[in-house]
Each structure stands twice: as C-alpha cells, then as structure tokens.
User: What shape does this take?
Amino acid sequence: MARWIRRLGIQPVALVGARCKFSILSLEDAATIAELARRDPAKPTARMQALARLGLTKRRNIVRRLVQAHQLEVAGRGANREFLENAPDKLLAALEGTALPIAACPQDSIPLDNESLYHNVWTGPIEELYEDLKSGAEKVFRHDSKQGLARFAVPISVLTRLSRRTADFAVTVAATQGNWNCRMLVRPPQYSDESAPGYALRLAARNGLERATWIGNVDVSPHERLRCCPPTVSFWRTPQTNSYWRNAWLNDPPICHQHAVWLVDECSRCHRALTLNAIHHERCRCGAILSESPTSPVSELALSSLKVTAPEMLTWLGAFALYGLKEKPLKKREDRSVRRYSELLEAGATMANEWPVSFEVLLELWQRRTGSSPSLLNVVFPGLMRRIRSAPDPSWKARLLATLSAYAERSRQGDRPILGRNTPRITTVAELAKRLNMRTEGVAAAIDDMAPEGAMLLRSGRRRRVITAALEDRLRANVKARRSLSHAAAYLGFSTERLRLVGEEGLLTASPFGLSQEDIDTFETNLIKHASCAELSKGDRCLAHVLRTVVTRVETGPFLRAVMAGDFPLRTKSEQGSIAQRLYMRIKDVQAWRQSQQVSVGIDFLSKDEARRVLNVKWEVLCHLIRHGHLRTTERRVGRRCSEVVLLKELERFRAIFIALSTLAKRSGICAKQAPSWAQSAGIHLITGPTIDGCRQYIARVPQSDATLLSRDLN
Assistant: This one.
C-alpha cells in the first residue's frame, strides 16, 4: 500500500497513531490503488537472490536501512517479508544512469556498501542522499570492475553532509513532536495540575480515539502504571465536570489526602493495570467504569507517620517487617503497584510507631543459629549491615545502628554473644591492646589463655573473641604484676633476643603479658646456686662477656642448663649489678665445653658471625679476609637454607698462621699507635691493614717465636 501511495503521489487525509504510522485515505484514492494493484501484481523473489544482486549478503544492516529509506521495495512483514523481483535492479539502474567514471572523482571516495555511511545516521538523510544521487544533484561514481552496490561510490565529503543533515533532521522532528496536539481537531487546554498522560487520555476521548497512544509522543511510557482517585474524578459522566487526572497522582505516596484513601492503579473487574494502552478516559478496556472502583481507606497511624517520616523510609521498614532477610525485601520494595505500596507503608508505620521493640522482635525472629557458642553478626543476620547502609534516611540509619548495637551488647552478657567487625560499638582486640599499651597479638593470646570459651574459630582460621568489662579488669591486673621482656632483659643483664631464646628453651616461663617477678627471681637463683665467693683468677670473665663473645645464640639454652647444673666452676664478684655482670667463669672451660658439644652433635663448622666472635674482629674485617682469600668459606645447609660457613679446621689453620697486630704489640709492650712502625722495624709481615689494602685492622703473620705461644693458648 505504501509503495502505491508513493508511486502515485497520493496525499493522505490524515496521519494517526504513534509516529504517524496509520494513513487515512479517501475512498477514491483507495479504489484507484486497488485497481492498479489488481492489474500489475508484483511478484516477490527470494531474499538471498536480491541480496546477492546488491552484493550485501553479509551486510544486513545496510539492507535494513535502505528498506527504511524506501529505496528497496518489499512485500509482506516480519519473517515473510520478501524483496520485489525488480527492486534491486531498479535501484542499481537508477544509480547507473547518473554515475560518472571513478577517474573523474576529484578526492577520496567511499563505496555505497560501506557501513560508515549508515552508522549513526537517521533514515531521513539517507533517503535524501539516494534521491539526490538518482536525480544527479549529488555526484556518484562507478567502478567498472565491481558489481552490486560496491560498484558505486561517493566523495568522502558526503559523510560530513550526512552528519549535518542528521542533526538538522533531529531538530525538525523534535520541534514537530513537541506540539503533538496540533494535529487534533478538538484541542482542549491543559490544566495547570493535570498530568501529561491524563491530558493525552482526555484529548483522545474528545477526538473520538480509542487509545491515547494513537496521538503520538507522550511523556509517559505506554506501559507505565497510572493512578487515580475514584471519589475525586467523575470520569466524563457529565460534560460540565472538570474531570481530569491530577499530576500529584503520579507521585509517591499514592494517597488522596482529600478523601484519605489509597489511589487505584488497576481495574477492579479484570485486574488489568491502568496504562495508556489499557484504559479509555472513562472506562477500562474490559468496559468497567473506573469511577465505580472500590477504594481502601488509609489508616490514621499511616497518615500520622507520614508527617514525621519520609514515605521511602516507611516502605523500607515495612519491607523488612513483612519479608525479613531471606525473601529479598528490597527487591519486593521495587514493586510500584499501589497494593504492594500500601502493604509496605502500613507495616512500616506500625514498626516505626512501636520502635525499638518492634525491631528487637524482628531480630529475634531473624536469628539463624543454634547452641550457645559465640557467632558472627553476619552469620546471625546475613546481609543486615549491608541493607542498613542502604537506608534512605540518615537519621533512621543511626537509629537502626544504635538499636542493633544495644541488642548485640546485651547478647554479649549472656550465653549467645554476637561478635564481628561489623558489630556496632564492640570492643575489639586492637582497641583493648591500645588501652593496655600492649601488642595486639599478646592481648589475643592472653584472652585465649584466660577465657578460651569466649572465642570462636572461623572457617578461614581466624578467631573472634568476646571482650567484657570483667575480662578487661582481669587483664589490667595481670599487666600490673608482669614485667616486659625488655625490662626483664635489662634486669638480668641479657639482651632481649637472648632472653627470648631462654624463654623458647623453657628455662623462663613467658606469657603474652611478659614475665612475672617471681619467675625472674627463680631463674636468677638457679644460675648462682652453684657459685662461690672465691677470689677471681686471671682468665675469669663475666657471664655477659661470655655470652657476647664466646657462646652463640644457638648454644644459649644448653649453655645455661650447664651453668645451672654446676658444670662450670662459678664465682661471684659482688652484690651490685645484674646477674650477668656478677657471675664469673673461666673462658677455657667454656671453650672446652663448646668443643665437646660440637663433637657430640657432629658440628664441624661455624657461621660467619660466630667465626667473627672467635677471632675477635669486626664484621668488615672478616668480610675483607674472606674476600682476599685469607680465610676460606664453604656452603652448608643450615636449617632450611644454604649459608656460607667457616669450617673449624679452616679456623684453626687461620689462627695458627695469622694474628692481629694489636695482640703482638700488646705482648711486646708496644702501644697501638706505634704498632705499624714497630712491625716494620721488627720484620713482621703484615698481610692486610689500613695502609696496605684499606682493611680496618692490621693482620700479621705469626712469627716463628710466637707460634709456640699461640698454639699453647689455643690448647
């Protein structure tokens, strides 16, 4: 039909429907079109054959745009639509009649089968372009070696003109559709408080149209629910009444405050939603009179709650009161029907009026746990905190958190405590550790020791702990009676690391709060119980010196056990100072004990740090000796990794050959400043030193006269 209207140039009497799809013709024009169609019936052809002629088999989007632009004639609709037999040939022949050779194109060209010509371009400009090409107003060029629509090309500047035409066409359409009532014969004025869909309904009824969607562009979707108040509107019962749909009925809450009733958004007979497609101005599609629809009154509690609380918050509360946490309450709240909205608002008003008892009753119903062990907040109330954060009213969000906090606080006083990071106002281990001036790990371990029943183990392996006021008081009392590890180390004269090793060996009991004074005194008594007050000899050294220079950290535990067992002759110097400074022993006894320990366990090497202590040199000097090959090292597996160590045989070899220059000078009564010049005059060979290779200490070869003395000292 549309093809014959365009071919004959018939002007329709009127255009109606959405986007003016329906044409109203006179009886004479309709008879003429029927006679021509009977004489010259068009034969449809196969769709793929037509696409092959155009060379657009894989470019269906271009074909669709050409059909919309009325450049290809089709028959049928949807899946039964077929191109007419001569449609592709007619388009190609029209372009062939005005095409010029491609060599005459003064600039770059773009073929007509390129999708860039049709992307983001309206149908109107595309139709205008093809009409200009067929009439010769726009130049088109042809490739003799190509077929179909790819045979023709247009200058590249056409893309710019298409974009400009699209923009102008959009402005024209917007200006035309903005005044969609100008095409109606009866044009009643729109009231100031009349809604846009209501005006469309009234306009369609005045002009005798069955549906308001036939008018054209309306600001409301044809499927959106409309609301009305039957007591307010008489719905066209008499011509004198001002029957129109109020603009306020589109807003929430759907209440008519004049009559204190809920608005109606569905037919009482067929229960069809009131939309532009479903209703006439006075009745539903099923024939029911909308003014006779029954209404539901709004409760006094709901009306009074709306004065102090926003309707969005009341429906939010009502969704949780009716559906809880399992049935997706916020999803149910998105239902925009008046029936669901009224249920939510009434339930929310009741919950707000009985606050906070109503919320606490719901919390008891929502709990998902059994037994009396501690539970996480997100396990007891899954998703509750996330939903509370989505509350539309900030003041109500604070009230919800305060009520939940009080509920969780009361639960921690009973046998079913609620824990978790998300629990409001809960005392965490980190906060308690900050108040006690302790490490978080120490406080956590102390709580597990003092109240193991108040902790729960999560699936991830983490622990959650219940912290009450009584437990905090007990922790404070234990902190006052304890000494920190650093304080105890200073009191005993040990380093902090040494004292930690003593605790790991079990010689000194340590807790997360530190060490008790009683345990420290017991440890000190065990160290000096075998000591005597005899006079000190020349080779005696204090315990602090022995630990610092001879005994390694690994040997700390066995060495102190040997001291407590009385394996060494011990002597005390005075009653002042720490135990490590008052307790003396012979260096040779300690060295002999170390050699026996190494032989018993099969250790034939020392770490570089231990070798440095044995040689009594600085770390930089040891590294310098290793780097220049004077002291050889090897790799051994120590623990879980390979380390560079010094063999005992290599250490004995080095001590038999080399000696510190300061030691030789001291034996000869030479001061340290004159030692280098004295060694040069005495013929002592220096292998390294500050003036030789930049080493921080002078090392010399052992003279023959001192070799015997050195071997005696080693033994």
Notes: Residues 106 and 155 are 8 Å apart (CA to CA). The chain has 32 helices and 26 strands. The mean pLDDT is 78. The first strand starts at residue 14 and ends at 16.
